[in-house]
Amino acid sequence: MEKSEVYSQELAKLQDIFADVDPSKAQLVEGLLEDAAFLKAENTVLKKALKITGMVKIHPTNPDLQKPVEAARQYLKNVNSYSVIIKTLNSILNKNIIDEEDDDMKEFE
Fold it and tell me: CB within 8 A of 24, min separation 6: which ones?
């Protein structure tokens, strides 16, 4: 799958998840949704390359000499950034759910 396809699918998935969120919150997280989709697409490309090269280069005559591949470093940075974004988005979703439950409980007060 091409990077642009991965981006489009991830963005559509995230936008679908946030479809029922308060419009002001949805507008607030719009950039995070795009960043998450971008990182997912970038990591798809890096992961394909890492399947070929591996994450560490090992010296052919001295296996004790090892060197991390730059793509592996970037992949891990992207994973960490993606994880932070997803946690942030999840906390906004959970806050939205709690707010909705509070609204439902007001009917019984």
Answer: none
Neighbours of 1 (CB within 10 A): 9
> Which residue, chain included where needed, has tokens 């007060």?
109
CB 81 within 8 A of CB 99: no
pTM: 0.81
Could you read off the pLDDT tens digit of each residue along the chain, which spans 109 residues?
Answer: 899 999 999 999 999 999 988 888 889 899 999 999 999 999 999 999 999 999 999 999 998 999 999 999 999 999 999 999 999 999 988 877 666 665 555 555 5
Cβ atoms of residues 41 and 9 within 8 Å? no
